[in-house]
Amino acid sequence: MPDEPMEFLTGAEKAEEEKPFQLIRWDASGTVAHLTMARPKHNVFNIQMLKEMTRAVESLNTRDDVRLIVLDSAPECEGYFSAGMEAIGYKADMVFQMMDAFHSFLLAMAQVGKPVLAVVEGVANGAGCELATFCDIVIASENARFLQPEIKLGVFPPMGAVVYPRVIGPKRAMELLLTGEPINAQQALSMGLVNRVVPQSALKESVDALVKRIADQSGPVLSMMKQVIFEGTWRPFEEALKRSQDIYLNQLFELEDSQEGLRALVEKRKPVWKNK
After folding, report:
1. CA angle at 60 for the pair 55 and 66, rounded to the nearest 5°
2. Which pLDDT does position 17 carry in this prediction?
3. Which of 35, 94, 143, 179 has the most CB atoms at less than 10 Å from its CB?
4. Beta strands 123-125 and 32-37: pairing type?
């Protein structure tokens, strides 16, 4: 997204940017940004919460120093990553607004250029499960459970119906969405829905170790890698291949970090990233 100086924002937009977060916790003070969903009891998404999450992620659009986003849930949410969408006022206009807010957050994650690591403890239900699946990497504790029960309510998850076939394959997606049955963490691992399953006692240590390994890399290269993989997943193959080649030849090799990486290889030393 283009840089937009604050002085070009309207008064209402400035007020929105400065509004304190109420339903999430957000820390972007270092090279790893941390977004914690914190709406007790079960992190049920409403429009305000989704807008806060979108605003937080979009604030990183001009932060080249941030290399990774960690997304998790607060301890007070009673064993839930997220219980999904709020069902209050389930009418066509409200459903549209909820879907629009949810999709805006997903697009913000895709466009920000930072890999997103989801840490799932407890239940990820409905839109909560879709959100975890959409993240770039997922670490789950042994007590995690994943549910897409919409078929039992006479509906289907519109985002999940598009995302799951690309992430876990069409046959597994069909079974998950047509049965509406919950799956445990090990089943999610075998399906490719999560990357790792670790004991609850080792969760923080495992997350911290992976975060450090990723955050030690060059920020711009991480961003380009995410862009190429994302477009390769969602665009037609030929178009995605051309896009990957263009980024590789015309953007990647313009980076000082790429030249530094090659020099470090020749000189048999660890590269020192400048993140530019």
Report:
1. 145
2. 62
3. 35
4. unpaired
The closest alpha carbon to 1, from 51, 66, 53, 61, belongs to 61
Residues in the chain with pLDDT values less than 70: 1-18, 88-93, 237, 240-241, 248, 253
Find out whether the peptide bond into 41 is cis, omega within 30 degrees of 0: yes
User: 275 with 257: CB under 8 angstroms?
Assistant: yes
Q: Enter the DSSP assignment of 71.
A: E
What would you measure as the largest C-alpha separation in the chain, in angstroms? 64
CB–CB of 110/69 below 8 Å? no
On the CB side of 131, CA atoms within 13 Å amount to 33
The pLDDT score that the predictor gives to residue 127 is: 94
Can you tell me the distance from the alpha carbon of 227 to that of 251, in angstroms, rounded to the nearest whole number? 12
Neighbours of 208 (CB within 10 A): 12
Instruction: Report yes or no: 82 and 127 within 8 Å, Cβ to Cβ.
Output: yes
pLDDT digit string (tens) for 20-29?
899 999 999 9
Angle at 214 between CA 52 and CA 51, to 5 degrees: 5
How far is Cα 239 from Cα 231, in angstroms, rounded to an integer?
A: 9
166 contact partners, CB below 8 Å, separation of at least 6: 233, 234
What six digits make up the tokens of 225?
Answer: 């890698």
pLDDT at 7: 47
Q: What is the pLDDT of residue 171?
A: 95
